[in-house]
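Repro:
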Amino acid sequence: SGKEKVLDFLYGLCKYYEGQHMVASSAAGDTLSSIKDKVYSLAAETALPVDDYKAWLTSFSADTILKGIDKLSDFLFGQLGLEFGSNAVITNGRIFVVDDGDSFLNEDLGLLESMEYELRTKYIHEIIEEVEWAGVDPDYLTSKFYSDITMLVSSSMSIRERPSERAHFEILNAEYSAIKLNSMNSSVHIDAVIDPLSPAGQKLSPLLRILSQQIQPSMRIVLNPISSLADLPLKNYYRFVLPSMDDFSSTDFSVHGPKAFFSNMPLSKTLTMNIDVPEPWLVEPVVAIHDLDNILLENLGDVRTLQAVYELEALLLTGHCMEKDREPPRGLQFILGTKQRPHLVDTLVMSNLGYWQMKVSPGVWYLQLAPGRSADLYELPSKLIAIDSLRGKLLHIEVQKKKGKEHEDLLNADDDNHVQEKTDNKGWNTNLLKWASSFISGDASLKKKAEKNTDLKDARQGETINIFSVASGHLYERFLKIMILSVLKKTERPVKFWFIKNYLSPQFKDVIPHMALEYGFEYELITYKWPTWLHKQKEKQRIIWAYKILFLDVIFPLSLRKVIFVDADQIVRTDMGELYDMDLKGRPLAYTPFCDNNKEMDGYRFWKQGFWKDHLRGRPYHISALYVVDLAKFRQTAAGDNLRVVYETLSKDPNSLSNLDQDLPNYAQHTVPIFSLPQEWLWCESWCGNATKAQAKTIDLCNNPMTKEPKLQGAKRIVPEWVDFDAEARHFTARILGENVEEIAEAIPPSSESDAPKPDHDDSSQDAKDEL
């Protein structure tokens, strides 16, 4: 065929050029003459029109042809990025570089042409042939015309697919928008194109500064901002820090650590301190006198300086687990430990990409299937894992079912006994806490005393009530201590509190061990790093909301079978054991519906109209200040996976999930069913009114969108016992920290009442805060 003739011709010409002209040993005229002769010879051998080639080549002078070759060479280098002397094949705008040593035969060229046509060009060519070319002379509509149009369209489309590993800045005209730093002696040149008002530009700028200081390159920075903005995209102050030799002492073995400084900051703006770290790092503040969520510099007095120390607490071991058919074995459970203690931490595999995650420290660990149904159904040899760098570790694991178990469902067990609950389960949790605490600074003597002092705990009888909560900022940590006291005063059963560690202040983490010892309760600090593949929230308040609902199946030890979430600003007036023991009728979640009593709030009940009314179809809209999670049922039904899928779908729309942790379970209750608790389990003045207050089993200090009354003021007015609880908690905190009560109160600025991030959903409007 004609195509085969052309391919044979090109192949012969390329081989001739490679063999005869890679070494420039002849004069230019002789070179051109020999090339012409070879073209005529190859055309004759492949049955191509020799006379046409002769007529075309002899119409140009030798000088014109050589200039054309030079121009083509400049185009290949300047526009296509091909190095001089390199070999490449260009088809329909796509460039395939042939590396030295690689064979590229006639058959390869034929295969490339065939695949390009079948995969990309064929469909474009068919569409172009159907186009009515109005206004084009029919004599021009030749096969060459269609071929050229097809090539141009294919080339344009391939530009969109071209990888970005290589860029050519020579073509940029940046006379008025470039910053040039010339270094005559440098062998390194850096070109950078930056949008100065983008988050990426904010991070790249200090990195370029560090490179400039360390290697003194020549540099050109082209500023490329968006031409028009409705709002400034950056609302934070940012510093990029790298370790330097100054961080290491020259006289001893101490390490000072890298530091970031913020100067000339606004005094009257409420700021929040956040830290941006590599994905495998779990970092937390370990020294901070002031509330890092509500920094108001004008309240610091004459000092006007605030400092905080952060510490790398742990690294992440993450992975993806698949069966041989590439389906994730959702619910499969792993344990991680040492040879002596094989079960230190555990987790389960999500259906979302087969993802799993564990917290580790540097060292050698053993990963294996958890005893129970996971080990009964699947095979996986114990894996030895070395954490030998600060990059953490990402594993890809393939498992297969045991022979004869191929058709059994992992999540079909009624008892959901994936991790055997033994009599030493309590000790296992203690071991986990001790292991995790080795990563952070702490009072070892206090831990020893806590292990020995069991008098108060032994006085409490019955099954342990597990309470889960989250707080951020000193104000809500103050509320959290009051909630703890209100729970303990109303029950004779053992209580264990679970707190999300990510947002607790160093002060609270210093006080809570003493409080547990004093009042006879257990506690555990838990955390889960936001997966990279899951759409991430940017506002700290919304991240906290997400932690209340998105990771319930993986944030707790697999041995925990039920937990109650209680808002930090809630006051409990009954024995929570009653709620803990309640039959949820097979539902994984139990929430209290919003009250309808207070008719003054009808205008704010958005779930009674529009989208929510249509979506709920008669189901109630529940409040998320108090809820029960049957973790066994939650994991067995893959409720966590379902909620994450719904979240991923909705969260990319900024108008969706305005009250994230509340909207998400209410929206998904058609697939993740909710058991509606009796109304008295959660009373809130704003929505319920005073008529039902006497029957309230818990009182939530929810915001009132009409009055916007400050939280502390409302607490003292609504809940008489709140004042006594607050005084008791403040006196205890002052005694532990060695401060007086007035200093504790002054540590919470008045402005933080309205600005502190807190999972509360009665008023979706929030005051924006700047971030460090």
